[in-house]
Protein 1
Amino acid sequence: MDSVKNIINFVFPYDGIYEVILGSNGVKPNLAPIGIIKDGNTLKSKVYKDTLTFSNLIKYQKCSLNIITDSRVFFEAFFNELKIEDYIDNIPIIPVGVVFLANCYYEKLENPTYFFYDLIDYKKYGEFYHAFNRGNSMLIDLLIHVSRLDIYSKEDIEKYLPIIKYEIDIIRKTMPNDIKIIEKIKELMLQKGLKI
């Protein structure tokens, strides 16, 4: 497994939304959580104006996609608590797992603006693993709620139905290749007289 394309397809195995830490520079070095949308061979993300990530990518159209599975690192990045100590080509990185280096471009300035990523290289700092997909975590939580429908009181079911609906919506959005899973869960709920 050595070509960039093979590694991209391993790390982002199917269409959907993956959470990574994006490293950017230009105005100021920054490491920030971002959702990467994989659609076929295209990788892109929505970046909002008035963010440091947006300003950086406009000024210097190179970045790093840091594949992290430790949720604490996402927390630290969200609160700007990560110490930025490592760089490749003036781009901040987190030397764990796999770091992709990318050229970034946009087609139209909007709010949000879609930035597209042309992955040109990678650095391996540990094992290869799939990028974090929050739909996977939602699916586990959804299965827990659905498994308890027979033991929940009517009041508890009413309380959890909006949560179940939300989780189904997130799974559908972030894991479109697994729509059959959602249909099977919805069918089970219909059999129990519950409509979502």
Protein 2
Amino acid sequence: MPRQPTFEKVDPMQRRDFLLALAAGTAGCLSACNTARPAAHSASPASSPTQGSPQASPTPSPTPSPTPSLSPLHLQDGPPPLPTPSPADSLITGLPENVGNVVAITIDDGVDSSVVNAYLDFAKDSGVRLTFFVTGSYPSWTDNRDKMRPLVESGQVQLANHTWTHPDLTTLSEGGIIDELTQCENLLRNTYGVTGAPFIRPPYGGRSSYTDSVCAKIGYTTTTMWYGSFGDSGLLTPEILLGEAQKWLLAQHIVIGHANFPTVTQVYGQIIDILRQRSLQTATLDDVYFGPGHNRHV
């Protein structure tokens, strides 16, 4: 939002004293009125015409327009500088060391549509790049389509697969796993025109070599875990959430948060402060593994 101009008020007592001084015409009163604001029509000495020279009308100076200011949340513009991408491993918990001072903030679930909406505002105001792991059955992913789609198109927001109904994959058959991933994938394709592959985050972190291999059969070749969490899959206090953010927002970490409860929406400013203090930039997983600003249209 542009910064609104502020206007200094003239003290009524100062205005009265100033007028009295003009009426009295005494040097003492004039001296006492030096602190009053000059009348708006008074010319400054520099603008007084020089004796003997033709008097010219001064050229009015244009009124300056307020300079638009960045949001107090502003952190970055676009993706950070990154090395040439290499394919992701079949199981990742953090980013490659060569990405430098970069962190991936990944947001799961989407139980609360208003929290997803607030995360999108946060992304727009700050430039922070987010990877959402979508649980497709929650209405938040269609409720917020119009606001989210431009961010997906630009590559600032990435959408990946967190299944359709959030089951523990280790409890499902092969067909059950494939059905969960396929329904979510169809939502991403039909609503946003992108694929979530190859990144799958198993709900509750429940995975095995068997579940990984089943996911890979339909293109989900990178099981994406994490190296630190905001701890907000359930309801907690802002102080606890910030303590976890302080602990885990570090270079090359993949940090997990949740769009389930509004606590996180109260501390976006403090999260930005942590990132600034540590000179961290954010990146999506697509930025890191496919190239800055990449979005995988289908």
Protein 3
Amino acid sequence: MDEDPRSCDDMNTSEDDDYCGSDGDTSEDSSEDDTDDEGEDGHHVDDGMIRYALNRVIADDGSLSCPPLSNEIGNDDFFDEEAAGIDGAPVGVREFVVPSAVFMELNSAAMQPLNEHAMIPSRSLWNEASEFEKGMRFMCKVDIQHAVKIYSIKGHRRFVVTHSTPDVWIVRCKKYLDGCTWRLRCSRRKSHGMFEISTYAGPHTCIYAKLSKDHAHLDSTVICREVENVVRRDPSTSVPVLHQMIKDKFSYDVHYKKVWLGKKKAIAKVFGDWAESYKMLPRWMTALQESNPGTRVEWRHGEPNANNEVVFKWVFWAFAPSIAGFRHCRPMIQIDGTFLYGKYKQKLLIATVVDSNNHVFPLAFAIVDEESRDSWGWFMACLRHHVTDRDGVCVISDRHPGILLAMNDPRNGWTNERAQHRFCLRHICSNFNMRFGSKELKDLVYIAGAQHQPRKFKAAMKELHQLNPECIAWFTDLDRAQWTNAYDKGYRYGWMTTNLAGIKFDLLR
């Protein structure tokens, strides 16, 4: 459909008005000779001198530099606004050409035309409660687009784009052909590089009832900007929470997928694109080693792809302060794994220890594709090679098959001759509950495992037998030294679970 002529004819304004004057001025009052003008009091005013002084006042980028005129300053040097870090006039104030110090000796009548000429129109910043106006500036095209969308959403209106290029954006009301005259034109100004509203006819003259539960302009891009700070503080904030936040602000019940896409865009904006982040990983690890001498990093790569590109598989790292600090900690390591949230469903393996103040002390990390015999074996071998060669270290973990196989593999250096393997009591109780489905029995198992004295352990197990005789057989294949405190011989220093590693996972998420 042909565009309504009003959308272009009414908006055919210059993309870059020259507010400071131009050598190509075609005014009929301009004089073509080079003679000096004479004021009423007989002083001669050199037009070239005025132009030279004015150009000195106006910075190269078109901004206004105001020279200090205070009597406390004992020289006539021009004030360097850029060097002083001043951004210009306050928001909402019109800027006028300000004469430099050399003009103070000139005829005031000759200066009058300059003082009456506004160099830059109003540049008040837009906010969600205000109306647009000509001269408003936005840092980029995306900012003006977002502002118009918010304006339309809150006013229950819609707009259509009639013209869009990298430097020009023109929109009008969707009911423009029905008589609403609302329209807006903005363009990038060469003088300051920002987008500026050059034509605006508003507010709307149409009447729009609230559209529906949703709004066409409340898209994932708008939602991205609205939830960006929330995602920055807590990337694990759920989509339903963000959905309710959008609903409370705009009174629109947008589709769940819009919010999901908005959160996805916000995460990419704050933390970077997933693929690009993995590409940056080698450089990040190199920088980590250069800035923290002694930090150890080891890579494992897969087979090259069809383009002969190296394919990332696993990476292990341990910070130098952690390696040095472990020498002063209890010889006890807790290991566990957790999912990584994002596009690539990989796993984070982590080893933590406990310092003398009973605080969590991170020891080593690894990113792997899955928890398996190979990945856990590689992680434990890296611990032996890069972190500690101390014998007699106690390792506390769950009973993941990959961990059991890795601990029993002599190549990894964690067999019974060099280390002690203990199980997390919380995981033992969870596995027991999956089999028998009784919270009462589960709690009793934890009480039994946490007892310090063998007689108290036996008393708890006797009570467990009385409640359910069949459940005692479940413990037959478990070495009591691996899951109870009473028979541990002190290797686990009273620590019964790997919850400390779980606390670290919460911080990393």
